[in-house]
Design a protein that fits this description.
- It is built from 25 helices and no strands.
- By secondary structure, the chain is mainly alpha-helical.
- It has one domain.
- Helix 4 packs across helix 7, helix 7 runs parallel beside helix 23 and helix 20 packs antiparallel against helix 25.
- The chain is globular.
Amino acid sequence: MLTKLGEKCTVLFQKYMPNAFVFAMLLTLLTGLITFAWLEATPIKIIQAWYDGFWSLLEFGMQIVLIIITGFAIALSPLINKGIDKLTNYIKTPRQVYFFVVFLGALLSLVSFGWIVITCVLARELAIRIKGINYPFLVACVYFSGGSWVTGLSSSIPLLLGTDKNYLIEAGVLSEIIPTSYTLGSALNIAIMVLYVIFAPLMIILLIPKTKNIKQLDDMLEDKTEKKELSIKDEALSMNLSYKTISDRLNNGVILQIFIVLMGLTYIIYHFYTNGFQLNFNIMIFIFLIIGLALHKTPMRYVIAMKRSSINISGILYQYPFYAGIMGIMLYTGLGEKLAELLVSVATIKTYPFYAYLTGGMVNFAIPSAGGEFAVVGPSIINAVKEIGAGLPANEVTAMISRASLSIAYGESLSNILQPFYLLLVFPIMGSGIKIQARDVMGYLVIPFIVLFIIQSILVTWMPI
């Protein structure tokens, strides 16, 4: 029954869900109309807020681009290819592929959501080597596996709460930091982590489409010779001149690259020594960069790897500004804060976590960035929780704020699987050389969304922190 329902959802998405860029444009107009009708903001104010926000994700967009291409370059290295070769000795059936991709993807995403690119490369290689894989469903599995990031080391909201002199403290919303023992180390977060790492792979097995006319990667490739390209090493050597030159020695020599790698490793050790195990986008990109340089050994090989990794990133470059514009409307017109106030106004000491969870999920469609969304709705929700908990001991109020903040994060992460923003991380790798759109993938994620929504709603409301 579940598989049939999933297939029907897929058909509906294929019929009615537009291209991801069109989705962003429609969402822009919808957000503007809601702002005009609800807040009575003038059209020019809405348009000005849209324009002001349009450029606010440029740094974030470039970070995402670099996460993708540096991670992809690592995955193109000979060492990773050998690892995939070994894995295929143990993974031999489509069912095993689906399970393993979700399981491994969830584990990798606990370190950083940027590591979903490694899952993408592994899944694509498995799809090439193992017959009978429904490729759009496999893409959905990869995308779904990335949801565990919200419980892991790069979860932005818990990291923000634990950062000294964060903007919530400076604004007087919080009086002190909230240690990660209340957030990432809480029983609630561990339960959500288990949900993604253990329950999700098992659930995916039950949702495998049973249709006979599956779309395999080989059938979808526009260029059937894609897999026969030169190895990176051979292509690098082919660029040498017919006689010995200093330039070729520099291009294909290892000495220069060794020094750069040693410099990079020195800084990475220094970073963690001085800051503890603190991850952010910049250090993750830098780590990916240094690892890629080390694995490819020579400058020319790394140049070629990065060139191959950069082929299919155009979607990010032109779509991120539109989502930033939507965020601008939410932020600069007060729509996000108004929505948060509305939802928490009906909350009680028993129901506030659910309303915070619902807020995180709803606002995420307009602000698909956990940090950006929390900046808009977080202060209102935290202030409401402080009012609800007035008179309680300080440690209990801290626990309530932690629960509400985690609930926002979980709602934001889960609703990602119903909107195509972060598919832009997946398609540059999984969609290379084929025609595939968000509508081909999203329908498979409806059932996982419903199941996890029910379970997470129960956990955030009643699970001890």
